[in-house]
Amino acid sequence: MTRKDLDAAIAVTRFGLGARPGELDTAANGPRDWLKAQIRREGADRFATDGETSNQRLAEFREYRQERAMARQDKADAPAPAAQPDAPMQTEARRPATDPVQAARRFIRENAAGDALGRLQLATETEAGFRERWALFWSNHFTVSANKVQLAGLVGPFENEAIRPHVFGRFADLLAAAETHPAMLIYLDQAQSVGPNSRAAEFQRRGGGRRGFGQQNGQPRRTLGLNENLAREILELHTVGVDGGYAQADVTEFARALTGLSIAGPRDAGIEGVVFRDQTHEPGARTVMGVRYDQGGNAQAGAILADLAARPQTARFVCTKIARHFVADDPPPALVARLEKSWMTSQGDLAKVAEALIDAPEAWAPQPAKLKTPYEYVVSSYRAVGQEPRGLGQVNAALNGLGQRPFGAPSPKGWPDEAAPWAASDALVKRMQFAQQLGAVFGPRVQAPTKLAAETLGARLSPAVATAIARAESRPEAVALLLMSPEFQRR
Amino acid sequence: MTAPMVSRRAFAAAGLALPFLARVAEAAIPPNRKFVVVICRGGMDGLSVAAPVGDPDYRALRAGLALGDEALRLDGTFALNPALPTVHKLALSGQARLAPAVATPDRARSHFEAQDVLETGAAGVYATSSGWLNRAVQSLAAVGKVEAISVGPTAPLILRGPAPAGSWSPGRGIDTTARLPTLLQDLYKDDPLLGPALARGLATEALARESGAAGDTSMTGQMRPAAGQGRDAAQALGQSLAGFLNAPGGPQIAAVSLDGFDTHANQAPLLATRLASLDALIDGLHTGLGPAWKDTVVLVVTEFGRTARVNGTGGTDHGTGSTAVVLGGALKPGGIVGDWPTLKRAALFEDRDVYPAFDMRALEKGLLADHLGLDRRALDAAVFPGSADVRPLLGVT
């Protein structure tokens, strides 16, 4: 085994998503060139969905909501049923065969499941594993999680529309696309945030809007005002980081600047998706991190986002995350410095940063320092056996059990990128169960398990594991051993 | 693939270490004492857990979110959220106490910094990479072995560190006829991360079978995917954890997390479902532990509280002081834990949050001292480093 063989194995497993049969041979011709050829201006591949956009899904959700409201109204209007304790079947029979609300909910769930499967299939099939990993990194950086029914059908389109087109473009464009996408505005509660001194809020204070803003199904009206969630998470998680030099006052000022940015509602006839409402925008100049923004309207938040994207703290914070994701939980400072330098000299050109990562000697250390996340483990397992998941059911159960439910990150911070949280003892048992399952299904079709191991890990395959696989009592056991080997669990 | 029952003998035959079962009766802590920490992630709104309905400023500050007659009265000032009937019942019989204005030493209002400080027990952010509950286990281990377990698919920071800790979450059980576990243990023998983790995971599975902790759910795979979120799932999780704690030679220390407390918008219904899960988890633990409840202390904490005022979207933003709950069968009688700073405008922290009147570490240190017998030196230096000036609050249990 030469250094080139080892580099090929590193390129495919550490930078990529694990080897499919034959992939190591391709990469061995020139591991760095093989990686760089995956960088392209048009961004990452879009995974297959049913083709619906976020705005179409938003419109569907609004219909669902209206149907639900109507169903509730019908229920309230219906005369109280006479007591018929001995005739439960009758009430059952009166219920329509297909409850439109239930049907709509099921539809939303199916949308989300279809998106998640398309995403998994892209990852298991792609010949550009590095490009896909790069996209997954940015998707996690700008996490939107399906923690509300409305979001379930939006997380997939969000990634395809706002993240994937921009991952090899300028960070400023990626940032703007992510923060102004309807999914993000809903996830971080921006859609309802209103400037306390905006025209809408003034109108409410004068007693206006009896049916207007804030009136919700006869519920007591809320006082219109700020929600600072998006502003805080942009600063803390998406740009300068928690040590980036901002204070509570900056969060509040930024939240004021973001007001107006919202989602079209039933009264915005003919408009879908993101709208800017001047009447809910907080008037006046804002000061964020020492810079004064005199612009009014939508341009104000746009200018703040552009400045945040250009700050060196952002380069430091995000480059540290890139290095941690690709190379080591505790990344070498020299590597971070290289990435930062390429970021600053290229004004946040992410294609240049990706090239700098590939050129960095620290990224090619022979010892693998990263434990695969459950998603990476599941994806690379399918790649190893040259298969793709046909349905979400089985994969979903595995990912749920391992704590990485598709589109279900636990917080805006996204999935953890370090080994410690994923290396729980229970999780190892569940990884083993998944390996056994995959071995049982696909193992019988594997002709020569030792050859499969060599094709999967190349120069990273250790003699101990090779021996164990050669001595396995069955093909399923051999495949399970390969997938659970220390070198396959890491990258 | 069905999983046959795993017996202790089967594991012994497979040559696996059984750290829980091999324990002898030389425990440092009183042998039956159990300690459970529940972390409510996302910043739980203390003013909606223990609502100061008797505070003259409460209603004005909390317009739209203030609890009315439906709140479960505790005393002249405080009432519990109606989604917490189990906690209320326990409180009325002296088995639950509320600390209405606690906080970690962190003031950054960042979930992730605050959770770091909450779980590491350090005086500042990112000061150490191990959790205080893990170091408590380590300190106890100096005198005798004690086992710890976390419930859930990922390992929480509070239990990460030098002392080995197991984890468990609902699942299908393992196929013990397979050679794979033994083969893997051999492949992992020099792997410092995977080796101990797998051995411990297998041992926990064995314990789950022996104790019946897994109940029917793990045998049939009926547990819902989002375990710990729904009320029934939370109840079942509490029961399962109680099964582990009750098992002879099982863990005495445990950590559980509940997510979803970051209620920036439309807070009342969202929080009600989360609190209902918390209540169900407590109920599952309480009923599952049975007689052992009298030897158990449960501490419910969160990384920070939320703004005293309602925000513009029917929710609340990140704040400071919040509410902790201490529960158990042997609490000393008493009202609230710590002082109530009130909601007077001048008393609010930075004119926006509940004042952090009481250092959470004082409560945690007091519980570890009273209930588990940890001495002051270990508490000040090892478990909560740099906390010598934070006096343990003794006498809660």
Overview of the structural elements:
The complex is a heterodimer of chains A (491) and B (397). Chain A has helices spanning 3-15, 23-28, 31-36, 54-77, 88-94, 100-125, 129-141, 149-152, 155-163, 171-179, 182-187, 199-205, 229-238, 248-258, 297-310, 312-326, 333-345, 350-359, 374-384, 392-401, 419-422, 425-442, 449-457, 463-470, 475-484, 486-489; strands at residues 261-263, 274-276, 286-288, 291-293. With 491 residues, chain A is mainly α. Among the domains of chain A are: 54-77 and 100-166, no CATH class; 188-207 and 224-310, no CATH class; 374-489, no CATH class. In chain A, the strands form 2 sheets. Chain A has a two-stranded antiparallel ribbon. The two termini of chain A are 18 Å apart. With 397 residues, chain B is α/β, with parallel strands linked by helices. Chain B has a single domain, classed as Alkaline Phosphatase, subunit A (3-Layer(aba) Sandwich). Chain B contains 13 helices and 11 strands. Chain B has helices at residues 8-13, 46-49, 58-61, 85-92, 111-120, 132-141, 180-187, 194-211, 215-220, 231-246, 267-289, 360-372, 376-383; strands at residues 34-40, 50-51, 72-73, 79-80, 96-103, 148-151, 166-168, 253-258, 296-302, 322-328, 358-359. In chain B, the strands form 2 sheets. In chain B, strands 7-6-8-1-9-10-5-11 form an 8-stranded mixed beta sheet, sandwiched between helices. A 3-stranded antiparallel beta sheet of chain B has the order 2-4-3. Classes of the chains: A mainly alpha (491), B alpha/beta (397). Chains A and B meet through α13, α20, α21, α22 and α24 of A and α5, β7, α7 and α8 of B.
In short:
Chain A is mainly alpha-helical and 491 residues long. Chain A is built from 26 helices and four strands. Among the domains of chain A are: 54-77 and 100-166, no CATH class; 188-207 and 224-310, no CATH class; 374-489, no CATH class.
